Amino acid sequence: MTGPADLELDCRGMLCPLPVIELGKRIGEVPVGGLVAVATEDVAARTDVPAWCRMRGQEYVGEEAAADGTPRYVVRRVSP
Amino acid sequence: MTSAAPPGGPRGPVYLDSASSEPLHPTARETLLAALDRGYADPRRLHGPARDARLLLDNARAVVAECLGVRPDEVTFTSSGTEAVHRGLLGLRRGPAARIGYAAVEHSAVVHAARWAGTEPIEAPVDRLGRVDPEGFPGADVVALQSANHEVGTLQPVGELRLPAGVPVFVDACASMGRLPLPTGWDVLAGSAHKWGGPAGVGVLVVRKGTRWLNPFPGDDRVDERASGFENVPAALAAAAALRAVVSERDEVGARQFALVDRIRAAATAIPDVEVVGDPVDRLPHLVTFSCLYVDGEALVTELDRRGYGVASGSACTASTLTPSRVLQAMGVLTHGNLRISLTRDTTEEDVDGLLAVLPGVVRDIRAEAGL
Question: Do A20 and B294 touch (CB under 8 A)?
């Protein structure tokens, strides 16, 4: 576990592309170097969060399970 | 067909989904209509109409063999490309414990057959372009590899596979048959007529002479021992006629399609946050896939349809299974906002330019609705 992120996005129940839209809208709320976590059951997020990081120049940290077992995708903001 | 629209008159919808199914080739249509009156009898019987049906069937087989550069007795007509894949692949197993290895980007027909076979299959990873490593099948007793990917167009290194002696190779050539010459280095191969402009309901199974292939399903005492069910003789003949026409046109049509796809690739890349995927050069001539960040694939397909363009998508929201395309997942590229555009033999420059004129606005509007 990386522990709590600077911003936890609860995207449970959202379908693609909503979790990635949420990530794109709110990444700016953490400082450069900060962590954002997206918790969602949306299976597309497993591919789309790392792909988003690659396209937007951010760092994909990895996948973990949230306390309730929901996959949680952690991203580090490395570019403005 | 768009080209049939009168000059200056209203233009019909532009169909850009030939990778799902190519419209019937005019030659196939003519042949089918003519053969419907002749090819009805049982080709195994000895009377006149039966001999006629048999003649048409043998003729269809000979034409397909010639177009593919194989022997006529290596060609079997099946009831679909999927059936050709299932039979072709499963017949290569040496016993129930044989492990099938397949590329992670294979068509679902291959994946379903491999899983049905019972022994846990080996899934070989692909790179970002969707290409498999020719040495990526360690432990496989049978290898299944597509000639070209049906979603992103990337050609696979079939002829470069490095396998231990005795490991047979099955090739799913459904995406490329007719459009490109067959690869080398395979034992059994499958194709699908409606992908090249033949009628649906005709698959082609090619089993190389000397290959140890055993019918994995119940036999059926037909003309061809590898097939089952009453032969659809008119459709097989129409499929063969279409294949011959497509092969004879392919240098011209393929070059034109390749250039139009280059144009789409460039225009899509110019839209912000759009990623064009698949090999830009070593690819099928007629199809291209790209993904638009923050865009709902279903909305994209629906909006383009409203504007008269019929395109496909590999995004989860557009799939009956509600899961994203396995191909895009295996490549590690964005799965949402995905479009696959595939050209027919008579897609015009005007058709493509029309699509490219509306696409940026459609993407922008969907993003704006999402608050981006």
Answer: yes
